[in-house]
Design brief:
With 377 residues, this protein is mainly α. It is 83% helix and 0% strand. It has helices spanning 3-21, 23-48, 53-105, 119-135, 137-163, 165-173, 181-220, 225-235, 242-254, 259-286, 293-307, 309-313, 315-335, 341-351, 357-363, 366-376.
């Protein structure tokens, strides 16, 4: 390797290292792009009805913030009330269980009494764990502030991108060589269409899951059914793990009424999950985004390992975009063309009768040839 090649290799390694160090910032930027794509899609719908671009964007942003405010207004107060009730109902349950154990000790032989657990001793053993959890409360508060700052950063970036998305798109395209920029434009168009399809499919699946959860919990008589149903629909954005997370608060609130409701809620959520995974998602996503289930699970494990909870939440849109770039750039433009460029150039030269210097340059440039064909079509 000569000096120029060594410098290029070192530059690539340093670039990869820098990108790895700022991976969290890049993930927040991607979250802003996904949110801006969603709001831009809504703004385009308003523009088709005759609105100006500025008013359509303002209306889309207003609807988004109204939805976020409505989500927290429906979720937080019922949960606060129910979990406050849970905090004093659980000690009462422990006390009743302890009284039942005391009564049991008087009815069994003395040889079996040492094998009956003592609730008080169990609470004493759990006391260090409780103290440790309380001691980490300051870390939890600082983590919450960090999450709040990240959310504000995503919202600010979303507003900037939404104000003039074409300008930011041109800046990104300029990072590629001139002969490849038209190709990048086509790939970005595919990414935008796929992201819009994923957003539409996810919203439909989320709405259906929320509706089924609200109806099922209302039939069972579980308190805060509306809040639990909305939370179940929202967590459905996280495949595989979201439904598991959503069943925990529902079972905890069902425990306030009767133990049989806990089992009924678990069965209800299992049925909803089976309906969603076997009927709703295949029908909706078949027309929107095609991803193999194993690829989805592997992507979740990969992104949650390297990016944390935000990576888990954005695993699907990241996988959709990564799939398009790998399919178009790595497979079509590199692997499929490996060893075929010389043969294609020879065929084009034979067909052309007397090419000029400009025409000869276009013939020997496969990206320009492909772009001109797509323009003619």
């Amino acid at each position: 390797m000569n000096l120029g090649q060594w410098i290029g290799l070192i530059a690539i390694v340093l670039s990869l290292y820098i990108l790895w160090q700022i991976r969290e910032v890049l993930l927040l930027m991607f979250a802003a792009v996904v949110l801006a794509t969603t709001l831009n899609r809504l703004a385009k719908r308003f523009q088709r009805s005759g609105m100006t671009r500025g008013f359509a964007v303002l209306l889309s942003v207003a609807i988004f913030f109204a939805g976020v405010a409505g989500f927290f207004w429906l979720i937080v107060p019922p949960f606060a009330q129910q979990f406050q009730e849970l905090t004093y109902r659980v000690p009462q349950g422990f006390e009743r269980f302890n009284n039942w154990l005391d009564a049991l000790r008087t009815r069994i032989p003395n040889q079996l009494v040492p094998y009956i657990p003592d609730i008080n001793s169990l609470i004493q053993q759990a006391q260090p764990i409780i103290n440790r959890a309380l001691g980490n409360s300051f870390a939890f508060v600082s983590g919450s502030l960090e999450v709040l700052l990240k959310v504000l950063l995503v919202l600010v970036l979303t507003g900037m991108i939404l104000a003039d998305p074409i300008a930011y798109r041109k800046v990104f395209v300029r990072l590629f060589p001139s002969f490849y920029r038209r190709r990048v434009e086509g790939i970005l168009n595919q990414c935008e269409v796929s992201l819009e399809g994923w957003i539409t499919g996810a919203f439909i699946a989320m709405s259906v899951v929320a509706l089924m959860s609200v109806v099922g919990l209302s039939v069972l008589g579980v308190k805060a059914a509306l809040a639990l149903g909305i939370l179940a629909g929202f967590l459905n954005l996280i495949p595989n793990l979201g439904p598991t997370l959503s069943v925990v608060p529902a079972m905890a609130i069902a425990l306030l009424d009767s133990p049989w409701k806990v089992v009924a809620v678990l069965i209800l959520y299992l049925i909803i999950q089976q309906v969603e995974s076997n009927f709703i998602t295949p029908i909706v996503m078949a027309h929107q985004v095609s991803l193999l289930p194993a690829v989805t699970l592997i992507a979740q494990l990969f992104f949650v390992t390297f990016f944390g909870f935000l990576g888990l939440f954005l695993a699907l849109p990241l996988t959709v975009v990564a799939k398009i770039w790998m399919q178009e750039v790595l497979i079509k433009d590199v692997l499929d063309e490996w060893g075929n460029n010389h043969q294609k150039d020879t065929e084009f030269i034979i067909v052309s009768e007397s090419p000029t210097s400009d025409e000869f340059t276009k013939v020997n440039d496969p990206w320009e040839a492909e772009s001109s064909v797509s323009d003619d079509e």
